[in-house]
Write a structure and sequence with these properties.
The chain is an all-alpha fold. It has a domain at 72-240: MetI-like (MetI-like fold, Orthogonal Bundle). The protein has helices at residues 10-41, 45-50, 63-69, 73-104, 111-123, 128-137, 155-168, 171-179, 184-192, 197-213, 216-221, 230-240, 251-291.
Length: 298
Amino acid sequence: MVRSVVRDTVGDRIFMAFNYLVLTLLLVVILYPLLYVLGASFSSGQAIASGRFWLWPVDATLAGYEAIFKNRMVLVGFYNSLFYTLVGTLINVVMTILAAYPLSRPELPGRRIIAFAFFFTLLFSGGLIPTYLVVRDLDMLSTRWAMILPTALSVWNVFIARTFFENTIPKELREAAELDGCDDFNFLGRIVLPLSGSLLAVLALFYAVGHWNSYFNALVYLYDQSLWPLQLVLRDILVQNQVDPGMLVDAREMAAKAQLREILKYSLIVVATVPLLIVYPFVQKHFVKGVMLGSVKG
């Protein structure tokens, strides 16, 4: 058996070299800010303020991290953010599936009207004040539910999940399940969900990132500091370390405060992003496929 070897032409080699060059530049553009933030978090405030820091830590110190974890509220914030992320993501995924699957069934009465009602909320919303009044009237102010229920459903994710069900779950499979006496709930739980692993992983990732980074709802609805998520706790630490010339008389104290604030800006970013960076590799294989969910219909 003679194997034919296909050799790249000069044009192919130039094209591949250009691709590698562009990808390398994109890698540098993306990687440099991450390394800069990480290196700055371990550098002294004086080195950052004077411009001596470029990429690698200068006058290495852990002062920023010591100032963060010395605050007992950091552990409270970690626990609260973890609670909001786990419970909120679970509710988000369940609500999204329960809304998207019926909309994917063509025999649903009033399907188009219901879908338009969902879509309408993407164009217009009640706004902050009406939402606040609803949360207040439901007695959810300064409770954990204020961080979970107002964001229990993303309409955009509902449409993504609906399109996934329409294009991935064959009609013949449902008909075969109905002949075997399988009702809608059993079909959804035993057949549809096991075949929708990528969808569930992507929905969980999107919702989890949103909950972990959420701070505005906490700023509006939560008055009790023991309920604050990590993002709000870190913001409070940064605010507490602001330099107020009217309150500081000693020039050395003012300089030390300013240097610590420089370090804190970067240390806070690292502390807030490390948990997501740890989780992301476990769902990364689903992420690329998830980005394309619902993009092609046919």
